[in-house]
Write a structure and sequence with these properties.
The chain has 1024 residues and is mainly beta. Helix content is 9%, strand content 46%. Residues 147-164, 175-192 have a biased composition (Low complexity).
C-alpha cells in the first residue's frame, strides 16, 4: 500500500511540473503565424497522401484556407483536434477551428496536387505560403511520363482498331504489348503474381465517401470502431474492421453474459494465413489474392459500418481496371445476423471505348476458429442456405441464400481444410494455406465449370465433412462490369449460442403397414425459445426433408402443437423404412431428430423378419480385424399365436460377445439362449401382432483379413416349435456387397502436460504418444503413411523443441523423422505462417502396432497469467492410408491456469470440517480441528514475510455461538475477533492437537443444545 501511495504522488508531481511548460511553445507557434513569406514543401507520407505541414494556429479561432487544388476533406475529418469543418463545393476552400498542440497538416488529392500558393486567414490577418513538391514526387513524375508514352501507344492503337478487321486488331494489340515491354518491362505482371497495385486516395474514392456523407453516413476518426447490438440470448454481437492494412479483414465477435469474447475466425490479420482472404480470377483455377487494400476511411450509419478502399486489377500489359471498394457490415436487430456486403465499382476511363470489359470473378475464404477451436463438423443449413459449425455452446452459420441480398449471394460455396502441408517445399514442411481451388473443383476429367457444395442438396443438419482445420469459401462467378458500374456481393454471418427447438412425438408410428396403407394423423409438440416461426419437416429413409407445417411462434418458449394428416407411402416398396421428424426455426437452429422405424408388408405376410448390421468402429465398407459389428434382428407376428424357435448362425470370421446378447420379449423378461459354437438358439412364445427384437455384437477375427465382406454372413431363422426342417421365415445379411476385410490404419494420439502447476516463464514439457492400433499382419495395407504431427503455439506459449522418441525413449534418427519449429521469423522460410508450430514429419510409415513418444518443450510466456481463458492446445496428426485417403486425428490438451512469476496466494484450504456430535458435561470440553489445513504459495523474490488473518463465526438455529480458539504455546485467542499470524515462504499449515498452532472448539456446560454451523475466513496479506 505504501508503494502505491508513493507512485500516485510521483505521478501528480510530474504532471504539475510538465503542464506549465507546454504553454510557451504554443505561444511561439502563434507568433510565427504573423510572418508573411514562407516556402513550404508538399511531401508524400507513408500512406501515399500528399501533405503539407503548416505553422501552429492559435486555438479556438476560426481559420480559412484557400487553395488552387482539391483538398482531401475526408482526411481532415479524421483529425480530432479540428472542429466545425466546412468547405465549398469545389473543396478548394475550407474553414475550421483548430485546438491541437501539434503543427497543422493539410492534405490534398494526390492525383491533382501541384505547386501553388495558398492563403490563410486568421484573426483578420492574411498570410500567403508558396507550396512546392519535394523529392518524394520525383518517382511519381517519372512513372507518369512513362504512362504518357503508353497512352500514346494506346491512342495509336485506337486508330488501327477503327480501320482494321478483327484479325488486324489482334495483331496490333500483340505489337503494342511487345512495345510496352520495351518501354517498361517492370510493369509486366500476371494475375497469378499480382492482382492489384497499391493506390493513393483518388478523387473517385473521395467522391464515394462524399456521396455517402451526403446520404447520412458519418466518417469515424477511429477506423477500428465497432458497432454492437444486443441479442435475444443476452449476448452482444460486435462488428467492425480489424486493421487499416486490409479492407477485407472484418471482425465479428460475440460477447457473452460473462464478458467473454467469442470469435469465429483465426486471429491473424497479416501474412498469407490471415483469417479472411479475398481473391480475384479471370480464369477458373488461376486465383490471385487481393492483398493490402488499405482501409482508407470508415463511416457509420444507424446499424451499419462501412469501410472504403481502392485497388487496380491488371488484365494484361495494356488494360487494367481501377476499382473503388466499399465493404459494409449491417446488423439485423431482430435476428442478430451480420450481413457482409462488398461493392466493387469500376472507375477507370478506357481510351478505346472499353474494348476489354472487366470480366472478373471473386472469392472470399474464411479460416474458421470458433471459440478457439479450429476444427469440427461442417454441416448443411439446408435448402441451399449455406453451412454451419458448432462448438458447444456456440454455433456459426454462413448464410448464402438470403432473399434480402438482392442477387448478391455467392454463386458457389464450399468447405475445405484451412491449411495443407506442402511437401514440395522440402525439409521445411511449410504449410500452404487454402486457396479457392481447394474448395471449388472440376467434376469432369476434361475440365469445365467448378463446383463446391452448393449442388449437393445437403439436408438440414447433414454433415458435409469433418475438418481438423475448417475453412469456408464463397465464390461469385465472372461478371462483366462496365466503367462506372458497381458489382455487389454479399453473405450473412450468424454467431450466437445454440438454441435448439424441442420437439416431441405424441403418436405411435405403426411397426408395420400393409402395402397401400399410409401413416395417418401424426401429432406432437414443438417449443422454440426465441424464433418467430418453426418449420416442421419429415423425411423417409435418405430422401430430402418435406416441410409439412410452419408454426407461428407467437409465444416464444411455450409449447405449440403440430399435426400431419397423412404421409403418403405409395412410392415405397415393401420392407424396412425409417421415418425422421425434425424442427428448424427461423434462425436455422435444428432440433434433435426423432426417428421411428416401420415396415411395409404385403397382405399375405404372416411374419416380418429382417436384420441390420452396423460397424461400431467405422464404415461397413472399411472393416478391420478387431472391429465390433452390431446386429439387430426384428420379428413381428402377423399370423397367429405361436410357440417358436429362433436360430442364428453367425460367420466363422466373427467372435460372439456373449455379454452383448439381448432379447426384448415382454412375455419373457429373462430369456434363456443356448450358445453352441457359432449358433444361438432361443425358444419362446408370442401372440398375434407382437414384436420381438434380438441384438448382439460380434468381433471381426484376425484371420478374416482379405476375406470378402459379402461372404461374412449372419443367418437368422424363425421356426414353429417342433418343426426345425423348414423355417417359417429367415433373414440372411452380409457385411457389405463389395470389398474385403482390410488393415486400414487406426491411428491414436495421446498427450498431457507433465507440469502440475505453471508460473510465467516456467519450462513446460508435453509428453504424448502417436501410434497405429491396427492389428499387425503381413500386409502393409494397415500402414499409416506420410504422417505429420502438429503442435501449434497457442497464445501464452513459446515453443522451444520437439522430439520423437522410440520405445526405449531414444530420439528417432533423421532418416526416419524430421522435427522442427515452424516460425514466421525463420529466414529460410519461403511461405509465411500466421503462428508458430512444432511439426514432426515421419519419413517412414507408422505400421500396425507401432507407437512413438512425442516430447514438446515450451515456455510459459511473460504476462501469460493475464489471459482470461485457459490455454487449450489443439494437437493433430494426419496422413493417408494405402489408397491415399486422408486419415486424421485430433486431441486437445488443456493447461492449468498460469500463475504470475512472483505470487503470494492460497493454493489449497480445507473445504469443510465436522466436529461431530457432543454431549454436554459438567466440565468444559475441547475438540481440535484435526482435518483443518491451508497451503500457501509464495514465489516472490527476496525474503518477504506475509500475514494470515483467521476469523470465524459458528452459530446454531437460535443464534447461540460455538466459540473457536487459536492456541500457540500458552497463548489463547478467540477466532471471533480474528487472529493474525505471520510467516514467510511456502507453507502448509495444520491446526490439529499435535500442531504448533492449534484451532479448537470449546464446549461449556451452559451452552444451548442445537446444530451449529458457520464459516472460517482466511485473509492472506503481503505485509509483515
Amino acid at each position: 500500500m505504501k508503494l502505491i501511495k508513493q507512485f500516485n504522488l510521483w505521478m501528480v508531481i510530474i504532471f504539475l511540473v510538465v503542464s506549465p511548460l507546454c504553454q510557451n511553445p504554443i505561444h511561439g507557434f502563434a507568433e510565427t503565424l504573423n510572418k508573411q513569406t514562407n516556402i513550404l514543401k508538399i511531401h508524400k507520407n507513408e500512406k501515399e497522401q500528399a501533405v503539407v505541414t503548416l505553422p501552429q494556429f492559435s486555438s479556438d479561432k476560426e481559420i480559412t484556407i484557400k487553395t488552387n487544388t482539391v483538398i482531401d476533406i475526408v482526411a481532415l475529418e479524421q483529425e480530432q483536434a479540428l472542429q466545425n469543418l466546412t468547405s465549398d463545393a469545389d473543396k478548394q476552400c475550407i474553414s475550421f477551428t483548430y485546438q491541437g498542440p501539434e503543427p497543422f497538416q493539410l492534405f490534398f488529392d494526390t492525383d491533382e496536387v501541384k505547386e501553388q500558393e495558398i492563403i490563410i486567414e486568421q484573426n483578420q490577418e492574411v498570410t500567403t505560403y508558396q507550396l512546392e513538391l519535394d523529392e518524394s514526387f520525383t518517382e511519381t513524375n517519372v512513372t507518369e511520363a512513362t504512362s504518357s508514352e503508353s497512352e500514346v501507344l494506346e491512342q495509336s492503337s485506337s486508330e488501327v482498331v477503327e480501320t482494321s478487321d478483327p484479325s488486324e486488331i489482334e495483331r496490333s494489340l500483340e505489337t503494342q504489348s511487345s512495345t510496352s515491354n520495351d518501354v517498361e518491362s517492370s510493369s509486366t505482371s500476371t494475375t497469378t503474381e499480382q492482382a492489384h497495385k497499391p493506390e493513393t486516395r483518388s478523387g473517385d474514392l473521395m467522391s464515394e465517401i462524399s456521396a455517402d456523407r451526403d446520404a447520412g453516413w458519418k466518417v469515424q476518426l477511429d477506423k477500428q470502431s465497432t458497432l454492437s447490438t444486443a441479442l435475444a440470448s443476452g449476448n452482444q454481437i460486435s462488428y467492425g474492421f480489424a486493421t487499416e492494412e486490409d479492407l477485407f479483414l472484418t471482425n465479428i465477435f460475440l460477447t457473452n453474459e460473462n464478458g467473454q469474447r467469442v470469435d469465429y475466425r483465426n486471429e491473424s490479420n497479416s501474412s498469407n494465413g490471415r483469417g479472411i482472404r479475398f481473391y480475384s480470377f479471370e480464369k477458373v483455377g488461376d486465383y490471385t489474392a487481393i492483398e493490402k487494400v488499405a482501409l482508407t476511411a470508415v463511416s457509420v450509419k444507424d446499424n451499419q459500418i462501412r469501410g472504403y478502399g481502392e485497388f487496380t486489377l491488371d488484365h494484361n500489359i495494356l488494360y487494367s481496371y481501377k476499382v473503388v471498394v466499399r465493404v459494409t457490415l449491417s446488423a439485423n436487430p431482430v435476428t442478430g445476423d451480420i450481413q457482409k456486403q462488398i461493392e466493387i465499382k469500376r472507375v477507370d476511363k478506357p481510351l478505346l471505348g472499353d474494348p476489354q470489359p472487366m470480366n472478373v470473378g471473386f472469392s472470399e475464404i474464411v479460416d474458421t476458429k470458433l471459440n478457439g477451436r479450429d476444427g469440427g463438423d461442417v454441416a448443411y443449413i439446408g435448402n441451399g442456405r449455406g453451412l454451419s459449425l458448432e462448438n458447444t455452446p456456440y454455433q456459426l452459420m454462413f448464410r448464402v441464400g438470403e432473399t434480402n441480398n438482392d442477387g448478391a449471394n455467392p454463386d458457389k460455396w464450399g468447405a475445405a481444410k484451412g491449411t495443407y502441408l506442402d511437401l514440395s517445399i522440402g525439409i521445411h514442411w511449410w504449410y500452404r494455406y487454402a486457396e479457392p481451388g481447394d474448395f471449388f473443383k472440376n467434376r469432369s476429367i476434361i475440365g469445365g465449370e467448378v463446383h463446391g457444395l452448393e449442388g449437393n442438396n445437403g439436408q438440414p443438419g447433414e454433415i458435409a465433412a469433418h475438418y481438423s482445420d475448417a475453412a469456408i469459401a464463397m465464390m461469385w462467378n465472372k461478371q462483366k462490369v462496365k466503367p462506372q458500374e458497381t458489382r455487389t456481393m454479399a453473405y450473412t454471418i450468424h454467431l450466437d449460442e445454440i438454441n435448439k427447438p424441442k420437439i416431441s412425438l405424441q403418436s405411435d408410428i405403426p411397426a408395420s403397414l400393409l402395402e397401400g396403407k399410409d401413416i395417418e394423423k401424426v401429432i406432437g409438440t414443438v417449443e422454440a425459445a426465441r424464433s418467430s416461426t418453426v418449420d416442421m419437416l419429415y423425411a423417409i429413409d435418405d430422401e430430402p426433408y418435406t416441410k409439412f407445417e410452419e408454426i407461428e411462434n407467437k409465444n416464444p418458449g411455450e409449447r405449440q402443437e403440430w399435426s400431419l394428416d397423412k404421409i403418403d407411402l405409395s412410392a415405397y416398396k415393401a420392407g424396412k423404412h425409417t421415418l425422421t421428424f425434425l424442427a428448424q426455426d427461423s434462425d436455422d437452429h435444428l432440433s434433435e431428430k426423432i426417428t421411428r422405424t416401420f415396415r411395409i408388408v404385403s397382405k399375405d405376410t404372416k411374419y416380418v423378419f429382417d436384420s441390420t448390421v452396423t460397424n461400431m468402429n467405422g464404415l461397413l465398407s472399411k472393416v478391420h480385424p478387431g472391429d465390433r459389428l452390431h446386429y439387430e434382428i426384428y420379428l413381428e407376428n402377423r399370423g397367429k399365436n405361436i410357440y417358436f424357435q429362433w436360430k442364428n448362425d453367425f460367420s466363422n470370421y466373427l467372435t460372439l460377445d456373449e455379454t452383448s446378447l439381448h432379447i426384448e420379449n415382454k412375455r419373457d423378461p429373462k430369456p434363456n439362449v443356448q450358445i453352441k459354437g457359432n449358433t444361438m438358439i432361443y425358444d419362446g412364445a408370442m401372440a398375434l401382432n407382437e414384436v420381438i427384437t434380438f441384438s448382439f455384437d460380434a468381433i471381426v477375427k484376425e484371420e478374416s483379413l482379405g476375406v470378402k465382406l459379402a461372404s461374412i454372413v449372419n443367418k437368422a431363422s424363425f421356426y414353429e416349435k417342433g418343426s426345425t426342417t423348414k423355417p417359417l421365415v429367415k433373414s440372411d445379411i452380409s457385411v457389405a456387397n463389395e470389398g474385403v476385410v482390410t488393415n486400414f490404419p487406426k491411428p491414436y494420439l495421446e498427450g498431457q502436460l507433465l507440469n502440475k502447476e505453471i508460473k510465467e516463464e516456467d519450462e513446460l514439457v508435453f509428453e504424448g504418444k502417436i501410434g497405429n492400433s491396427t492389428l499387425a499382419k503381413e500386409t502393409d495395407s494397415g500402414a499409416w503413411k506420410q504422417v505429420q504431427y502438429v503442435f501449434p503455439e497457442e497464445e501464452g506459449l513459446d515453443l522451444k523443441e520437439i522430439q520423437v522418441l522410440d520405445k526405449n525413449n531414444q530420439p528417432l534418427p533423421d532418416s526416419e523423422v524430421e522435427c522442427g519449429i515452424v516460425s514466421e521469423t525463420d529466414s529460410q522460410q519461403v511461405k509465411q505462417n500466421y503462428r508458430r508450430m512444432a511439426i514432426a514429419r515421419f519419413k517412414k510409415d507408422i505400421f500396425p502396432q507401432e507407437e512413438y513418444h512425442i516430447r514438446v518443450k515450451a515456455k510459459a510466456a511473460k504476462d501469460s497469467s493475464k489471459l482470461n481463458e485457459p490455454i487449450i492446445v489443439h494437437t493433430s496428426a494426419f496422413g493417408t492410408d494405402k489408397t491415399e485417403e486422408s486419415v486424421e486425428i485430433e486431441q486437445e490438451i488443456q493447461l492449468p491456469k498460469i500463475q504470475p512469476k512472483e505470487m503470494l496466494t492460497i493454493v489449497e484450504v480445507t473445504e469443510g470440517m465436522d466436529f461431530g456430535e457432543w454431549t454436554l458435561k459438567r466440565e468444559k470440553q475441547k475438540r481440535y480441528a484435526e482435518d483443518l489445513s491451508i497451503k500457501i504459495q509464495d514465489t516472490r523474490s527476496g525474503n518477504n514475510s506475509w500475514s494470515l488473518r483467521i476469523s470465524s463465526e459458528v452459530k446454531n438455529e437460535s443464534g447461540a455461538i460455538l466459540p473457536l480458539f487459536f492456541e500457540e504455546g500458552k497463548q489463547k485467542q478467540s477466532l471471533e475477533d480474528g487472529v493474525v499470524i505471520a510467516n514467510k515462504g511456502m507453507k502448509e499449515l495444520t491446526f490439529g492437537e499435535k500442531s504448533k498452532q492449534k484451532i479448537y472448539a470449546e464446549l461449556s456446560p451452559d451452552m444451548t443444545k442445537g446444530h451449529y454451523q458457520g464459516t472460517i475466513s482466511w485473509n492472506l496479506m503481503d505485509v509483515p
